[in-house]
Amino acid sequence: MSLTTPPDIPEAEIELTGIRAQGAGGQNVNKVSSAIHLRFDIPASSLPDHIKERLLAQNDNRITADGVLIIKAQTFRSQEKNKEEALRRLQEMIAAVMTVPRERRPTKPTRGSQRRRVEGKVVRGRIKAMRGKVVD
User: Fold this and answer.
1) Domain boundaries, the chain
2) DSSP state of 134
3) pTM of the predicted model over 0.85
4) Which run of H or of E encompasses 41?
5) C-beta separation of 74 from 35 below 8 A
6) What is the spatial distance between Cα 120 and Cα 116, in angstroms, rounded to a whole number?
7) DSSP structure string for 64-114
8) Cα-to-chain-centroid distance, residue 29
9) If we measure between CA atoms, which residue out of 16, 5, 34 comes closest to residue 70?
10) What is the DSSP letter of 25?
11) How many whole angstroms from its chain centre is CA 19?
């Protein structure tokens, strides 16, 4: 996997910062900045407007009120692998909003399915009616 930016995004629009990772790791975790913070300003980016709107419309807690996407990658012990991971996640996010979902056309149940549903309810009602006390 090569360290490349997602398609159509100049490297200048992506800010990568090395930070210290959380969690276990002994002395190494206290002195090595192996985790990566990726910051991507969506409104100021060169992405097409419709993609910007769909990214900002997502209910994602990684997008700030200013429209800056922050991805924290700390899975790996190497900073290079964490950079690749952060860029991959950004690429996945953009690819997810690039595909436009098909518009749903409302459908009506067929007459036969409506009839079968009602008949089933009637049969079930008869079964339940038979559960009452026996009267002599």
Assistant:
1) 11-98
2) -
3) no
4) strand 35-41
5) yes
6) 6
7) -TTSEEEEEE-SSSSHHHHHHHHHHHHHHHHHHHHSPPPPPPP----HHHH
8) 29
9) 16
10) -
11) 24
